[in-house]
Amino acid sequence: MNQNIKFHQKKNQNIQEDNISKNYIKSLFLKPFNDLIYEAQVVHRENFNPNKIQLSTLLSIKTGGCSEDCAYCPQSARYNTDVENEAILALEEVVEAAKAAKASGASRFCMGAAWRRPKQKDLDLVKEMIKEVKNLGLESCATLGMLDEDQTKQLKNVGLDYYNHNLDTSPEFYGDIITTRTYQDRLDTLKNVRNSGINVCCGGIVGMGEGLDERVGLLYELANLSPQPESVPINLLTQVEGTPLHGKEELDHFEFVRTIAVARIIMPKSFVRLSAGRESMDESTQALAFIAGANSIFYGDELLTTENPSAEKDQKLMQKLGITTE
Ligand code: SAM
Ligand code: DTB
Ligand code: SF4
User: The pTM is what?
Assistant: First the structure.
């Protein structure tokens, strides 16, 4: 085995055992791009088949009219965006969307709702949706806002596989983005999800006007969750007219790819998802993100309320790159 690979394996073992410091994370970000990508690719190959990615399809099961003030989000009732508020979807509509997702090759179906936290009558309906998704042989995922212990237990009991709840950014920058729930609220929900035995899907957003220290701070919080999240979505802000973050200076795509690479190195066993923002990226940027260790995408023509590359376009890209699916 070559010396470099031995070196990385040793470092990986240390990463699993020790607290990952902010200085170490920052030092990764500051490496020459080629060195960082090489290191990420080595870690990636030690832990995953580098030519396989996992496909998750999203469906917004309850759109708009949300009471929260997340500055990036077109679904907040506080901002004047083009999003039309919709009541919760009927069970049959969700089943149809899940069937279509399965037919086009997704392995996981993720249901998102614009809630601060779900009410019991809504949760009862979501539980039925989860059962149906499972019956189709798909992995199930939900993102419904904050959950207490009893709610996570209910979701586990119907077989929910993953719960998505993002930390979004660093604790220091968080107050600039959201005021209606605290960082600790998010950590509490994540603890309830973890304790109930549901897999954790937790990531964040970059390109919100944050600096390098905030990107370091986000990855520091994610990597020090114990155990680390099974899935880590890294979203590039999709700027939506009417939201407070519309018009922010765009993040350089190399800095986005660096964020993926650092996430891969410090969370070697997690699926790192190249998430929102692909619509603004050319194929080369996406290929760089895969080389940097991204091994999951949101797959399907829509995210929740914004556009995503079409399934056909993604199939062509995967074919060009010789990538197959998990
Ligand atoms: N309402 C629930 C919540 O916030 O917990 C679940 C759905 S919410 C839309 C899920 C995540 O989508 C957010 O935490 C955020 O990270 C991401 N997101 C929302 N709007 C986005 C945007 N415009 N660009 C990138 N990511 C976004
Ligand atoms: C996540 O990290 N990204 C997804 C999912 N989890 C729920 C959502 C992205 C939303 C992008 C804006 C929209 O389409 O509304
Ligand atoms: Fe509501 Fe979630 Fe959007 Fe925040 S991110 S405004 S909680 S839908």
Answer: 0.95
